[in-house]
Amino acid sequence: xxxxxxxxxxxxxxxxxxxxxxxxxxxxxxxxxxxxxxxxxxxxxxxxxxxxxxxxxxxxxxxxxxxxxxxxxxxxxxxxxxxxxxxxxx
Length: 90
Known about the structure:
By secondary structure, this protein is an all-beta fold. 0% of the residues lie in helices and 41% in strands.
């Protein structure tokens, strides 16, 4: 016979490391082709000239140059426009 009562199991004790998201190269910085400019979840920033967006929404430089950010509006499927930041390499 047991001398202690049932202890039960603990929940919510696992922790995952941070994803290291954010802007990696700021406006005016020089980048080379293939450099990561922005790591993001979702399409909060859109790719402009000189950049491509990866499958996980990471924005990469396709050519060497200087990073530039500008505000723009995109039209959704419903016709609504939403503000976004366009990332480009000049």
